[in-house]
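A quick word before the example. In earlier lectures we treated sequence and structure as two separate objects. From today on, think of them as two lines of the same record. Here is GTP cyclohydrolase 1 feedback regulatory protein written that way.
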Amino acid sequence: MPYVLISTQIRLETGPTMVGDEYSDPAIMNYLGARKTTILGNNFSEYHVDEPPRLVLDKLEKIGYRVVSMTGVGQTLVWCLHKESM
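And the structure line, produced from the sequence above:
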């Protein structure tokens, strides 16, 4: 999977950080130390870490991911990262 999206709420810039959905690569989620959760009422799961986005971005850079875009959507900050195929 060459793309990863991470996000956080503006008021929670120190964490937690959402790092994936139920279809995310389990190896990457394990590397990040993410836990899979399903919030009551949602019909989907998400992976979260307690770390702030900056630390998550640092970890993903170490395994070859690069930020390709970042935006704010309402009260949410979102980063899109890409890893080149070998």
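Notice the following. Residues 14 and 73 are 18 Å apart (CA to CA). We will return to this example when we discuss secondary structure assignment.
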